[in-house]
Amino acid sequence: PTLNCSALRAWFPWSSPVGTMALRLSSAAVRAAAQASRCMSSVASATQAYPAHVLNVPATEVTTLGNGVRVATEGGHGETATVGVYIDAGSRYETAANNGVAHFLEHMNFKGTKNRTKTGLEMQVEDMGGHLNAYTSREQTVYYAKVLKQDVGAAVDLLADMLTGSKYDEAAIEAERGVILRELEEVSKMPEEVIFDQLHETAYQGSSMGYTILGSPENIRSISRADLQNFVDTHYTGPRIVVAGAGAVEHGALVELADKAFGSLPSTPASGKAVELPPAPFVGSDIRMRDDSLPTAHVALAFETGGWLDGHAFPIMVLQQLLGQWDRADGSGANVSSPLCRELAAGPYVHSGANVSSPLCRELAAGPYVHSASTFNTTYKDTGLFGVHLVADPTDVFTATAIAMHNLARLATDTTDVEVQRAKQQLATALTMSLDGTTAVCEDIGRQMLTYGRRMTPAEIYARIDAVDVDAVQRAGMALIHDQEVAAAGVGNVHEMPDYNFLRRRTFFMRN
Catalytic annotation on 183? Predict the structure, then answer.
């Protein structure tokens, strides 16, 4: 009999094609797992037809140190390397009292250690001609360095010193408060940044996922050295850390360097209590920051996804490409493949919107409705936000929002094979281009190791994209959007933004 691979992949969406189940399963589940394994084997066989740049990629080697730190590399080529430390700790793991501490800690780790002054740290990076950077997200904190291959050892030592030997000097903490407050002030002037903080605040209200990454001004002024140290003692533990390398790195050498640098980290929090993933329940709701002095309105509409491990993850990625994006300043015309962008972008701006392939963008191009429209797919471990961000003139907000909701709702029923095939090709191309360079590859390794516990090869990713068809896309649209709760945020001149009931009623079509 023919195997239903699509259904089985929904059961085991991230199982390794050559792996075995390390769980005690019922006999029925064992048979299902065996079928899933055969399906994945057939997917693996299909990958032989992929181009060389997909197949001929160095393997990602993984070693786990005694304290749980994982070392993962794709190396052995080139003259430059990127090494990074990826930590399973971000603003989601904060409380209302210490919100902002993860980002504050990121700043403080550049301000001097027991072995290096702030100036000494900066001079060492400059002397190597390297690049050192860091960022904090809602679920992760990342530190990375790009250097020549002969400086990989020095880069690992530098990163380790920052993460395990920072002094958190009281004077430096006080000085950094002003820096972060100015950063917060600058961000608050960017509607394109504020809109997504507001969207998280309303969609995940009552949970830490709704917190901003920078924290409130009150918290920034009150975070203490004890708060910083407590966050490190709780979250900077072996099993929550991945040391990743890409480019001119040898796996065995990096394992030795990582063991020396991070092997002494504790494997459990100082409190002895395991850190659990804070829940992030999604709440259908809306929030508005009305400011009629602004010339435009920013509107974000979002539905909840199941996160990285959800069986609909790849169909949703295809949906993002299918909806597309459009900007009035771009040169694309009114024949864009997205109906939404076509309708929103036409009229006097027909020269810039009429030729895009996204149905959403084509529809937006049919009238002077928006300045720009983009689809986002913000994904976390167990949840995520999928939707559309619009920038429009105040008098066009209502119409633009209605068009966006219509195009979102139709994904559950009216997508075509031509649209899906085009979106799949766009997705495969975008993913390939996103891995151009050692820093991008290192980032991909670190993120996948923290989210999946392994790294998918490009060939496997291509196979998973190929497995998406119209039925899979419509099933994802049905589960994601059809008669589901929606979260909405508005920033700026949003007096004509539709109310929540209007949005909720347009999550489905009434058919005769």
Answer: no
**Cα-based torsion angle of the residue sequence 131, 134, 135, 136 in order, rounded to the nearest 10 degrees:** 170
Per-residue burial over 486-504, b if 16 or more Cβ lie within 10 Å, else e, is: bbbbbbbbbebbbeeeebb
Does pLDDT of 18 surpass 50? Answer: no
Residue 249, both tokens: 């790195």
Among 4, 150, 167, 183, CA closest to 78: 150
- The C-alpha atoms of residue 110 and residue 205 are separated, in whole angstroms, by 32
CA 13 – CA 19 distance, rounded (Å): 13
Rounded-to-integer distance, Cα 473 and Cα 476, Å = 5
Beta bridge partners of 376: 387
Which tens digit of pLDDT belongs to each residue from 78-133?
999 999 999 999 999 999 999 999 999 999 999 999 999 999 999 999 999 999 99
Task: Give the chain's end-to-end CA distance (angstroms, integer).
Answer: 37
Q: How confident is the model at residue 13 (pLDDT cuts 50, 70, 90)?
A: very low
DSSP state of 273: P
Residue 408's identity, in one-letter code, is: L
Q: Contact 304/458 with Cβ under 8 angstroms?
A: no
- Report the alpha-carbon distance of residue 352 to residue 329 in Å, rounded: 7
What's the predicted TM-score (pTM) here?
A: 0.87
Inter-residue contact 337 to 358 (CB < 8 Å): yes
Beta strand pairing call for 141-148 and 131-136: antiparallel
Residues in the chain: 512
HEC string of 375-437 equals: EEEEECCCCEEEEEEEEECHHHHHHHHHHHHHHHHHHHCCCCHHHHHHHHHHHHHHHHHHCCC
The two three-digit tokens of residue 248, written as one number: 């001119």
- Cα gap 226→233, rounded to integer Å: 10
List, for residues 482-499, the tens digit of each pLDDT value.
Answer: 999 999 999 999 999 999
Torsion of CA 177, 181, 182, 187, to 10 degrees: 140
The residue type found at 499 is: D
Rounded CA gap, 210 and 198, in Å? 8
> What is the phi-psi region of residue 225: left when phi exceeds 0, alpha when psi lies from -120 to 50, beta otherwise?
alpha
Q: What angle do CA 259, 260, 262 make, to 5 degrees?
A: 65
Catalytic residue among 94, 106, 176, 343: 106
- Which among 193, 12, 231, 215 has a CA at the least distance from the CA of 99? 215
Strand partners, 326: 373
Neighbours of 21 (CB within 10 A): 15
CB 345 within 8 A of CB 366: yes
